[in-house]
Amino acid sequence: MKKLILMAVMALATVSSFAQQAVGTFTIQPKVGLNLANLTDADGDIRAGVAAGVEFEYQVSDIFSLSAGALYSMQGCKFTEDKVDYTSKLDYINVPILANIYVVKGLAVKLGIQPGFNVTHKASAEVEGTKVSSDLSGVKSVDFSIPVGLSYEFNNFVIDGRYNFGVTKIADYSDSKNSVFQFTLGYKFAL
Questions:
Q1: 120-155 b/e (C-beta count within 10 Å ≥ 16 → b)
Q2: pLDDT digits (tens, 9 = 90+) for 20-33
Q3: For residue 121, how far is the Cα from the chain centroid?
Q4: CB atoms within 10 A of CB 14
Q5: Which of 9, 25, 100, 126 could share a disulfide with 65, CB 3.0–4.6 Å?
Q6: DSSP 13
Q7: What tens digit of pLDDT does each residue of 36-72 get?
Q8: Domains in the chain and their CATH numbers?
């Protein structure tokens, strides 16, 4: 983390005008993509899911902007035990609040905070072709993570890749935290 911040500071000292949008502009960016989610300390496999929503961005300077949004995010994990396939479905409405530093034209380094609000907390199992599901009890309604990533913008299309470091436990009875790689494609509209 310290190295990432140091690299960003060094880039700031050597860059000039790299943002795609003019200083003082607001943009809205609908986006959709893929989550590769897992839970720490759960010995699970990746649960692939959808990430979709919208982000707003304000261009503060030529190389710095702030963004905030709301994204539906399918998270959780999968695992197999005693020949039974289990899926933990933990879906959230995440609210990423990010600082974006443009290190070259169109390329931004992103770092921020992200509260998330749980909307689905189910467990399902498949036993010999029969699916069974139930609600997971004790799942916390609010999650907190730290998103770190890169984005590249070309002709208003934005490719974004992030890793969301889970900070809070998903439930009181578990030490597991969310761990999510997120890849999205969006399009920026000036407001």
A1: ebebeeeeeeeeeeeebeebbeebebebbbebebee
A2: 689 999 999 999 99
A3: 18
A4: 7
A5: 100
A6: H
A7: 999 998 888 999 999 999 999 999 999 999 999 999 9
A8: 2-142+160-190 (2.40.160)
